[in-house]
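Hey, I'm writing a tutorial for new members on how sequence and structure tokens pair up, and I'd like a real worked example in the thread rather than a made-up one. If someone can provide the structure for the chain below, I'll link this post from the tutorial.
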Amino acid sequence: MTVIDAHLHLWDLDAVEIPWLTPALGALHRSFRADEAAAELRGAGVDAAILVQAADSLDETRWMLRTAEANPWIAGVVGWVPLDHPAAAVAALDGELAGRERLRGVRHLVHDDPRDEFFALPEVRASLAELARRGLVLDVPDAWPRHLVRATAAAEATPELTVVIDHLGKPPLGRPGLDEWRAALAGAARLPNTVAKFSGLHLPGTVLDVALASGLLELALELFGAERVMFGGDWPMSVPQGGYAPTWAVMRAAIDRLSPEEAAAVLGGTAARVYGLHDIRPLGPAR
């Protein structure tokens, strides 16, 4: 079984600007590069990863693609194009991003966008149709509470597009709205072209332990089925909570409670199929 982390970030602050990444974020305010990530994954027994954007910029997407091409264990990249400007999005996809085989999806930081209606904009809907036409996936970060319902509507309007809900939409654990979040997530799950990431679950006011992780994973499987759920470590966002190893230990313990077939799907099979990863080159032993 090839274990794939479906949600990894890297950034080089000397090469690309990450606007939200300020000194106030403490341990996160430094560069996290491929060699450090490879050591973390190798130590956990993870074979490959999908690199996911952290900035709404083509500069970062170019940097991620160069990084992936230099590090074969990065099996795919979820980059960025200006979805609200379809002509510019098409120009990028058919221009400088054309033929970049590791580009497997697109994401926009909707949680930092002031427009609640982002996924309902006609311009965005036109761009989503272009993603579908090219076989690219849409990732949706931090969808709850502003964007989960509208992202679901966009998925329903574009059934050829696969929509990946990162971090289970960010459930409001310990806060108001948990029942509403669950109902909205269930609404998304009813569509066959939606997928959920079991990732990014270090949430304010909660401790990610095996009981919490297992409960969220059970809910994801109940709603989506294992064939539409994938593991993501969300490193280095986990660094303030201890880093890759303790997060992996908790999430792997939850996954190990599943049947072998379900665990194989969550740990890699779903990610390989959803992102169309045909040339996975696992990390080898440390040299």
